[in-house]
Amino acid sequence: MNPEEFAHIAASEQRFWWFRGMRRILYRMLDPVARTRRIECALEAGCGTGYMARLLEQRYGWRVHPVDYGLEGLRFGHSLGVRRMVQADISRLPFPEGAFEAVLSLDVLVHFPWGEEEAAVRELARVLSPGGLLVLRVSALDILRSRHSEFAFERQRFTRRRLARVVERSGFRVLRSTYANSLLTPVALAKFRLWEPLLRRPPASGIEGLPGWLDKLLYLPLACEAEWIGAGLGFPLGQSLILIGERA
Q: Does the pLDDT of residue 37 top 90, yes or no?
């Protein structure tokens, strides 16, 4: 990921509408699964600033090991007091086989060149115990690439079918998969395919301060999606894709 993006994330991830909304959606998917499993030790592969790892510890009581390749993110994590942070490539993790009962990797696979994501997922399978839980979130649908995608060094986006194939070939069984950030897709499509090409501005971070009223307005669709997904339903398309799987 672009090292410059870590500063934008650190400044925004606690309050920005997208982060708050996507966390709410993830929790609604993860809560019922986490309640039925005994998970003591978890890995967040590609932790960024480590803020999400800390929230996972607080919510579920797991001992989370946050790992990231970027030193910039780890520095922010240390300033937050996040524990057990390690610098590592998630395709070559410094942990023994079966070390974790759960592995989460959020918005990380998209930064691998096309085809190299499978090696990373196989490595996640290696460090996960049999029957362990896999949680992936990725950017979805090539047509939704944006200036932000370019700025963040995003190399690929996924469809639900392709992501399922990748994890199944790596030894996982898909328990649940759905698109998310779906209700705003028409707005995103108009912005990314019409407005941004007209402006012809260089790549830039999409994580920027917004007026309070607009931040609340953009958060509402994600809050609605969280309730829909929490009821066991899903969306046929969207800007993100979330998959929960189990190691065979």
A: yes
Q: Specify the CATH number for the domain of residue 140.
A: 3.40.50.150
Work out the burial of residue 153: count CB atoms within 10 Å of its CB; fewer than 13 is exposed, 13-18 middle, 19 or more buried.
middle
Confirm if 240 and 127 have CB atoms less than 8 A apart.
no
Q: From start to end of 73-225, where are the E strands? A: 86-87, 100-106, 128-139, 172-180
Query: How far from chain centre, in Å, is Cα 132?
Result: 18
Per-residue pLDDT tens digits for 51-65: 999 999 999 999 999
Domains contained in the chain, number: 1
pLDDT tens, residue by residue, 142-193: 999 999 999 899 999 999 999 999 999 999 999 999 999 999 999 999 999 9
pTM of the predicted structure, to 2 decimals: 0.95
**Type of residue found at 190:** A
Nearest to 110 by CA among 147, 75, 74, 136: 136
Which residues make beta-bridge pairs with 246?
133, 173
> What is the domain extent for residue 182?
5-247
Distance CA 40, CA 100 (A): 8
Candidates 49, 39, 48, 114; CA nearest to 76 is: 49
Using the predicted structure, report yes or no on whether residue 35 has a pLDDT greater than 90: no
Average pLDDT score over residue span 11-24: 95
Report the candidate in 180, 179, 184, 178 with the shortest Cα–Cα distance to residue 221: 184
The token duo for 191 is 């912005």
Sign, CA dihedral 34-134-238-188, equals: positive
